[in-house]
Design goal:
Layout lengths: L6 E2 L9 E2 L28 H14 L3 H5 L14 H19 L3 H4 L8 H12 L4 H13 L5
Antiparallel strand pairs: 1-2
Length: 151
């Protein structure tokens, strides 16, 4: 867990203090907590583009956008090492998952309940709800509307 000085603190008083720089995405500020609302826009299953933009903005302001963009991968655990980056990654991933759940309506929320990483949550929501190529979708809908059954 990170303290106000940015150091990850171990459970024993004689453990070494490890520092995660405040400039790194793995750093959590002491004011960061699981009840934080990244945006006032709540995803309801129909407003994905607006919501996604608001969430990206909130994550960018907290230097956490790289978690959903795939820039921060889960570190590999090394036996016999302190694995401080892995611990920091787990803490950040859990915090970001909580932040994401706070801005998702209960109905779409069910589809991501057991998703392990925030990057996977983002990917699943994007794949499911993103308009993708809106002009092409519009064109295909127009073509479908013009279809008529032969007599």
């Amino acid at each position: 867990m990170t303290g106000p000085d940015g150091k990850l603190k171990g459970g024993k008083s004689n453990e070494k203090q490890h520092t995660i720089s405040i400039a790194l995405p793995l750093y959590l500020h002491p004011s960061d907590n699981p009840s934080l609302m990244l945006t006032q826009t709540i995803f309801n299953g129909k407003n994905y583009e607006l919501w996604a933009d608001a969430v990206k903005n909130g994550l960018a302001a907290k230097n956490k956008l790289v978690f959903i963009e795939g820039g921060v991968k889960k570190p590999v655990e090394v036996e016999g090492e302190d694995n401080i980056e892995l611990l920091a990654w787990r803490e950040c991933n859990a915090m970001l998952k909580a932040w994401m759940r706070n801005v998702i309506d209960p109905k779409p929320h069910q589809s991501i309940t057991f998703t392990v990483t925030v990057a996977k949550i983002w990917e699943e929501l994007r794949d499911r709800y993103s308009a993708g190529n809106a002009p092409r979708v519009h064109q295909l809908k127009e073509e479908l509307n013009e279809c008529k059954q032969g007599r």
